[in-house]
Amino acid sequence: RQRVFSGIQPSGNLHIGNYVGAIKNWVAIQERYENYFCIVDLHALTVPQDPKELRRKIREVAAIYLASGLDPERCVIFRQSQVSAHAELTWLLNCVARFGELSRMTQFKDKARKEGTESASVGLFDYPVLMAADILLYNAHLVPVGDDQRQHLELTRTLARRFNNLYGETFVVPEAMILKTGARVMALDAPDEKMSKSSPRPASYVAILDDPDTVRRKIRRAVTDSGTEIVAREDKPAITNLLDIYAAISGKTVPELEEQYRGKGYGEFKKDLAEVVVEALTPIRERALELLESPRELEDLLEAGAERARKAAAPALHAARAKMGLG
Ligand code: TYM
């Protein structure tokens, strides 16, 4: 069986972009693969976090994974920081990765520009190497992610190939799995910006845990384009984004939706979209809130997952160490 690896940072509020770009797809494919779904808490530390809040967010992500339908019988669900091999392989890969290629990562450049490059943490710079370690440790074949992770996946492939060339065949060269719909959900209030967990503007995203009235209000207030037509087109970025979300959640295609809403107004379209989103999120939200009432059980589940992950990660770490002369 081929292996799948993916992860989400426990920072900010998980939103419908994370759901349709990642989690929904993980749930859909889980029966076909051996799956590792990680809560990448070490990645979250690359920007300042409040320790108490971080601890709460980690459980929240675990609850959302389970509530969305990931089955712990089929998926190893765990926290990155509970498997020390991630940090250890990162160091080995740091010595294979190049300063120049990390400097060209657009996500780093964007974030560093916001924080000021001088004060950005070294962890933020090194973030893609930790991500490569996550994936290569499990010899994952497939990495289901949103479009914004494409460049990081390319770097992971480069590092795997370079390591294999330098030291002999060691790692599987993984492939990104990026869907056509929902892979790049844009902000509701600014369709030229990616929907982001760390946005200071709650109106820019629908959180997975937003209650139904909040979801309805946010979608009602989402910006639209001039004109009245409901079509996906370059000059209609806002409507294109709403159609993409609608398609990703409902399973209908964009052309089907364009047909369905021909001659209808933005108001009716948004109202229906809100109901489709509410219908998808309500069971997830309710189940997640229920799970969060038993934090002990969530912690136990994560510890059991970490135990399995440690076993699965050991051979690749051992091989990498030995090949580099540390065995
Ligand atoms: P993160 O935590 O920012 O996002 C989690 C997942 O959600 C996807 N995503 C989106 N998809 C569609 N539209 C959006 N607006 C949107 N925003 C986010 C992301 O592409 C991702 O799939 N570096 C990763 C976490 C990571 C990881 C890994 C992923 C660490 N190690 C190993 C895969 C494999 C990140 O920050 O994702």
From TrEMBL:
A GO term from the CC aspect: cytosol
The UniProt record lists the keyword Ligase: yes
GO BP annotation list: tryptophanyl-tRNA aminoacylation
Keyword Cytoplasm: yes
Alphabetical list of SUPFAM superfamilies matching this protein: Nucleotidylyl transferase (SSF52374)
Entry superkingdom: Bacteria
Residues noted as binding ATP in the record, renumbered to the chain: Q9, P10, S11, G17, N18, G146, D147, D148, V185, K194, M195, S196, K197, S198
Assembly with partners or alone: Homodimer.
HAMAP family recorded: Trp_tRNA_synth_B
The protein's name in its UniProt record: Tryptophan--tRNA ligase
Natural source organism: Rubrobacter xylanophilus
